[in-house]
Specification:
single chain, alpha/beta, five-stranded mixed sheet, two-stranded parallel sheet, 7 strands, 12% strand, globular
Length: 226
């Protein structure tokens, strides 16, 4: 099972930040400053249009749909990179490190089932790294109580801009999952979500290793207050 964005190894954070410093400003999300779970309808429509007009992402969604998982979405880099490439006017796609498939299945929580999904997806679309993670079991990484849904698990991720996913129905309708909203993603603002005990450390490590600002210079990177 792949470690989710909210559960990276905290030990390297201070060392990594010293190697790749990023501008520090206040603006963290926390228990008292959560963004609304209601997404702006215009942004949902814009994201739906971006995804629907991208044959590569649509093929990815159809491949996952063919797995007949009970609840699922493709989230993180596939969606985030698509939006940021669009807002920067890039014609060349920024490929994500992997294709993150989130699903929720209480009855199949073994790692071998995740690996089987990844093998089946690779048989449909090879040449990319598929990562399937059952959100019914991922709380073991975050030290949280068991999650009740994909959206609840995503709401605990360290950066809201990554906690965005898309599901494709059998009627070819795109359903957006964004429990922390879409305004930061489209506003090119990256801020920490400080709901888990080690979220600040995880966030710092992600920002220093991902180095998003080098690929997307219009981003504003916000840091948690020390």
């Amino acid at each position: 099972m792949t470690t989710p964005p909210c559960a990276a190894n905290p030990a390297r954070a201070s060392w990594l930040q010293s190697l790749h410093p990023v501008r520090r400003v206040a603006g963290a999300l926390g228990p008292q400053s959560m963004v609304s779970f209601d997404n702006d309808a215009k942004l949902v429509s814009e994201l739906t249009a971006l995804i629907g007009s991208d044959p590569w992402i649509m093929d990815l969604l159809r491949a996952v749909r063919a797995m007949h998982l009970p609840k699922w979405c493709i989230a993180a880099g596939v969606i985030r990179n698509k939006v940021w490439d669009h807002l920067h006017g890039y014609s060349d796609r920024t490929l994500p490190a992997d294709i993150d498939v989130l699903y929720y299945d209480h009855d199949r929580i073994d790692d071998t089932y995740e690996a089987d999904i990844e093998r089946r997806l690779a048989a449909i679309i090879p040449g990319v790294r598929w990562e399937a993670v059952n959100q019914a079991a991922v709380h073991s990484y975050t030290k949280d109580a068991p999650y009740k849904s994909i959206e609840q698990a995503m709401s605990r991720w360290a950066d809201p801009v990554t906690a965005v996913g898309a599901h494709l129905t059998y009627e070819e309708q795109i359903v957006i999952m964004a429990p922390l909203g879409l305004r930061d993603l489209f506003g090119l603002v990256v801020r920490p979500n400080l709901l888990t005990p080690n979220a600040a450390t995880v966030y710092r490590e992600r920002m220093t290793t991902k180095r998003w600002i080098e690929r997307w210079p219009k981003l504003t990177i916000l840091w948690p207050d020390d």
